[in-house]
Predict the structure.
Amino acid sequence: MEPCKHCGTFAPIPATGYILVDTSECKWKNADKIETTNKTMLKFPFHSREDLIHMLDIWKENESFHQTVQILNEYNTPSLPIRLQHLWERLKYPLFTEIIQESAFTSYLQPIVNLQKESIFGYEALLRTDNKNVSPAELFSFAQRAGLHSMLDQKAREEAVKKKAAYIPAGQKCFINFLPSTIYVPEYCLQHTFHIINQYHVDPADLVFEVVETEEITNIKHLKNILEVYQQSGMHVALDDVGSGYSTLDVLQLLTPDIVKIDRDYIRNCHESEQNQAFLKQIIQTTKQLDLLLLAEGIETREEYEWLQQAGIDYGQGYYIGKPSPKPVHKFIHS
């Protein structure tokens, strides 16, 4: 399938060449000009990667890093437009760029249990890089700065689907994180994911797409549209970290996710904290009224587990139940 233009591209950066800048955007005029089909561009030569980085360092201080440029190689073939900031980030952090380009990562699987039946309900797929010195948080932060967050998010979803096909039995769920900000037109942007699901013969009903905890949502209508596209395609959706940020009780009725994950801050010491218990009892009542399922994440002790179980929470996840691992644990045993 053709990638969406928003998902980022890996234009080859030649050892020598020119940076092309639109004359209407560039403050630096001491350069040769080149006429293109619809505008006049300025040509700034570079003779090595270091030379190019030095040029960008200067522009970083004097130019708007949001402007777009093109790279002209030795054959006078211009690249697709790219922001100065994105180009600078990819040159300064080649290891991170290579990890995304080569998909040098995998999914670890953390078990999720049915608290009432004490059986495996499914697994959450969590990104882990092949390079242990690069954390997932660092990689996603870089991808955001380098204009590659849509590509990384898409590739991470693909890796999770592959892990589901290879290791998670039919009938058990696979929770897959996604960044709503990387999905511009859901009906189009999600076609690659749906194609991968079909390619690996995964039952859509076994997938739960989860809005990640770090994502800041400002357009609830857009998020609702994304969730509906998943649901209309036979998949489930989960809303993460309810109780913090945008994921408040007020939006549950608007978004109608299938599963609601409770912010781990309310799980910590829930067997002792009256404040946490008051919130948990409130959300249990609300989700029952809306016919939504509840998942408590961040369970780390037997006491937390047993209180949540007795309170009627549907599902649980956390180190007490099991840590993320390359292959799933098929039996739930807690001590």
Observations:
- The chain has a mean pLDDT of 86.
- The chain has two domains: 5-92, 105-317.
- The longest helix spans residues 149-167.
